């Protein structure tokens, strides 16, 4: 484990206590995974070859029959939809899974920043899944392929989790 991964692991431990989750730690691969209440898989790690924090969410699967249309729509949404913030859609290098990806500098990361980044990313991912399901219908699946724990009891009405620290 690198020194940055050790710091991230400590912050994840604090986040785990804050959100009352068990086991929010990096695994042997250096990744922490969780599932939201909306059944969206979120992965947290340090981006390979950089010092950026990386958040990934599985938001769907491409279908062979509409592949070109779906890829075109995802590219358009990457450019036009400000709701994504600085997150963007990407295609897994190992499958046809559509991911939502967000990178941010890890240097000087503290628990307030991590809490806000993860909480906001969960909301963006939740909104993105809803929009894609509305666009492509019920056959568009965002179900996680592996049932990771823990689950996040995420309140969509709370946009900034730093407020929880003040309570």
Q: Percent range for helical residues? A: 25-40%
Low-pLDDT ranges:
145-167
Oligomer: single chain
Question: What is the radius of gyration computed over CA atoms, rounded to a whole number of angstroms?
Answer: 16 Å
Q: How many helices does DSSP assign?
A: 4
Q: Briefly, what is this?
A:
The protein has 167 residues and is α+β, with helices and mostly antiparallel strands. It is 37% helix and 22% strand.
Topology, pairings included?
Elements: H1 3-18, E1 31-36, E2 41-46, E3 52-61, H2 67-80, E4 88-91, E5 97-105, H3 111-136, E6 151-152, H4 162-166
Parallel strand pairs: 1-6
Antiparallel strand pairs: 1-2, 2-3, 3-5, 4-5
Describe the structure in your own words.
It is a single chain. By secondary structure, this protein is an alpha+beta fold. The chain has one domain (3-153): Yope Regulator, Chain: A (2-Layer Sandwich). Helix content is 37%, strand content 22%. The chain has helices at 3-18, 67-80, 111-136, 162-166; strands at residues 31-36, 41-46, 52-61, 88-91, 97-105, 151-152. A six-stranded mixed sheet has the order 4-5-3-2-1-6. A hairpin with a 5-residue loop joins strand 2 (41-46) and strand 3 (52-61). The longest helix has 26 residues, at 111-136. It is elongated. The termini are far apart. Residues 145-167 have low confidence and may be disordered.
